[in-house]
Structure formats: structure tokens, C-alpha cells
């Protein structure tokens, strides 16, 4: 049984991780962590998550006897999370998005000592769609008349980063697929359009971020050609695809040597 600490335990994602972990005999929740001034401090993490009591209060101290940390918080917390995972010698599932290059450097450095999975989406369906997007790009990139790729993402109104980490990852993977051909000009990442933009260039990937209501996450990759269009769409109907993926990543990390892994590693894709 893995001793699990959830950081951001009172958040939208943290609550679903706590709820699913409570039903999984492979985990024992040992800490549900939030900042000391958080309004949920002291509440039972299970009750807060809408399931039965787990007898673990939301609290701020980090225990040392943990096997794995799952983090769904905000970039401002990430350095602290990494530091505590290192101190405990615990594996880390880092699911927070909007990270800077400095955060990524710290994750790379920490991964010399502990095993870390970082992925902007823990969802199986999203990761599979990423592979399909790469395959589609490779098949169409040299088509006569040209290929236009645009990434549309929709999320709830509370989301603080844009475009989503997942949209950025789609763009990065699609750009990699383009680069299979050295003759292809470098891809330009274009975020939204306004005003007299001129005609679309052939080598850009466009990103469009929509924020409405309580949408738990939706990504559409548009492959536009002259005469026909392909759209790959993956949409969550609730957050459990991400929470279940994070728990699968935590289990996969058990016994893994230090290193920085992705959900493609976890899902063997
Ligand atoms: N990889 C994936 O599959 C997914 C990733 N995400 C990402 O996970 C993150 C969290 O999403 P979500 O649960 O919706 O967000 P929430 O805002 O609901 O939850 C974040 C939690 O972290 C806490 N927190 C924020 N800043 C800090 C800090 N500096 N120190 C300690 N705790 C902090 C928040 O506390 P407070 O309420 O006080 O702000 C809150 O409890 C986002 O980056 C999102 O993009 C989301 C879904 C899937
Ligand atoms: O904030 C969210 O909700 C989500 N964030 C992740 C991202 O930025 O890609 C993953 C998912 O789409 C939900």
C-alpha cells in the first residue's frame, strides 16, 4: 500500500484525487496538504471531498513518511512541493500547469534524486489524442495546397493559465512531427488573432483559449486543408479522468529509479 500525500487537497482536483484514493486499496492517504491560512484546514479530507471520513485532516505540515506526492496546485507552490518530496525521498506526480522554464529546470534537477511524472494532462484519452495528432500531422504536412493546424481549448472560468498546459503540449508535439522533414520551415506558435493580421502563413500553429462556466477541459485540434477538414476532439465530462490518471502514475512510480517521466511512459504509448 502506497503512503500518499495530496498537495492542493482542498482544490477542485485535489478533492477528486482524495475521493478516488479512498476507494483504492493500493493507497493510504497520509496527508492532505494546503497552506496554513487555507479556510479548509482542520476539515476531514474525505468529508470535504464528498465521500466518507478518511480521518486525515486538511493540514499544512509535510510528514516525512510518504511514498508518493500528487500535486494539483498552482505554479507558486511548485518549488515548495519539489523541496518536500526531495526531503521525504518520495516520488512525485506533478500535474500543475502554467510552469515556467525555471520550474521545469528544478523538476529536471530533482529527478536526478527522485522519480517524477510531469504531464499537463493525466487523462488517457488526451494522451492518446496527442499521439493521433502527431500521426495526423505526419500524414498531412506535405499535402498539396497546405495544411493549417489550430488548437482550440475550452475550460472553466476559474482557470488561471492560458493556453492550457495540454494545448501547449499538443503544439509542441505537433511541431516535433513537422520537424520530421528538415525542408519544413520552423513552426510559429500564434496565440489568438486580432486586427489586420494578413493572410495566414503556412507554418503557424494557432492557439485559442475559451473560458466559460464549469467546463472541465476540452481540446480540439483542427487540421484544415483546401477542400476538407479533420478535427480531433477530446472532452472531459468530469475531472475523474485526470484524478484516475494521477493515481495510475503514482502506482507506476513505485520502485522506479530517479528520472523525469511523462504520461506516455506511464501509459506505455
Ligand atoms: N495534469 C492534469 O491532468 C491536470 C492539471 N490541472 C492543473 O492542476 C492545477 C490545479 O487545478 P484545480 O484543482 O482546478 O485548481 P484549484 O484552484 O481548485 O486548486 C488548487 C489548490 O492549490 C492551492 N494552492 C494554490 N496556490 C498555492 C500555493 N502557493 N501554496 C500552496 N497551495 C496553493 C489552492 O489553495 P487556494 O484555494 O487557497 O488558492 C487550492 O486548494 C492547475 O494548474 C490546473 O491547470 C488540472 C486538471 C488536470
Ligand atoms: O485547469 C484545468 O482544469 C485543467 N488544466 C490542465 C491544462 O492546463 O491542460 C488539464 C485539463 O485540461 C484541465
TrEMBL record:
It comes from the Bacteria. Transmembrane segments: none annotated. Residues 2-122 form the Dihydrodipicolinate reductase N-terminal domain. Its EC number is 1.17.1.8. One of its GO terms (molecular function) is 4-hydroxy-tetrahydrodipicolinate reductase. Residues 126-267 form the Dihydrodipicolinate reductase C-terminal domain. Its main location: cytoplasm. Homotetramer. Catalyzes the conversion of 4-hydroxy-tetrahydrodipicolinate (HTPA) to tetrahydrodipicolinate. This is 4-hydroxy-tetrahydrodipicolinate reductase. The lineage of its organism: Bacteria, Pseudomonadati, Planctomycetota, Planctomycetia, Pirellulales. The gene is dapB.
